[in-house]
Design brief:
- The chain has 174 residues and is an alpha/beta fold.
- The protein is 37% helix and 17% strand.
- The strands form two sheets. The protein has a five-stranded parallel beta sheet, sandwiched between helices.
- The longest helix has 25 residues.
- The radius of gyration is 18 Å and the shape is globular.
- The N terminus and C terminus are likely disordered.
């Protein structure tokens, strides 16, 4: 084992290597993961789901049915977010302009707040890990006084936008 590790690394569900869990007894927790249901947001969390599940933690993942099998394959429990999704929202094909995306997420949050509060109230987790853009997860955790952690996928700037904040707004004005 390397410095600071107990035991050796072992293969995880996706074939990568992760450190062996500590030998001390750890209380198992329920982690509720609230995501934006797109590959750039879900894929980076799959190894996290597997690592938590491999250590005996329960991970419930709120996303769309398109991701249900991947969630289950990595040891998570799928929770369907589509019942609260406004019918005109297509998160797989967001608008190219940042301000339009913000409006889309605001409509999505409005539709998902009630179902998210119900889900978290019925099956209360020890912690909510929410995507930085999934404000329904953040707000629901705050309302229910559940500790929360924000996760963030890397933001890739569209070629039509400059890297400056004013360029981001200019792209929205076009």
């Amino acid at each position: 084992p390397g410095p600071g590790r107990r035991g050796g690394a072992r293969p995880n569900r996706t074939g990568g290597r992760c450190p062996a869990p500590p030998t001390v007894h750890t209380r198992h927790v329920h982690v509720a993961l609230v995501q934006i249901p797109t590959s750039g947001h879900v894929n980076p969390t799959l190894d996290l789901i597997a690592a938590l599940a491999d250590r005996g933690h329960r991970v419930s993942v709120t996303t769309t049915p398109a991701w249900a099998q991947a969630v289950r394959d990595h040891g998570g429990e799928f929770r369907d977010m589509t019942p609260g999704m406004p019918p005109d929202v297509d998160l797989d094909h967001p608008p190219p302009a940042l301000l339009e995306t913000a409006a889309l997420l605001a409509r999505t949050t409005g539709g998902l707040m009630g179902p998210m509060l119900d889900t978290l109230s019925r099956d209360r987790p020890d912690v909510v890990v929410h995507d930085a853009m999934a404000s329904w997860g953040r707000q629901s955790a705050d309302i229910l006084r559940i500790p929360r952690v924000c996760s963030s996928a890397t933001f890739a700037v569209h070629p039509r936008m400059s890297a400056s904040p004013s360029g981001l707004l200019e792209a929205d004005m076009r």
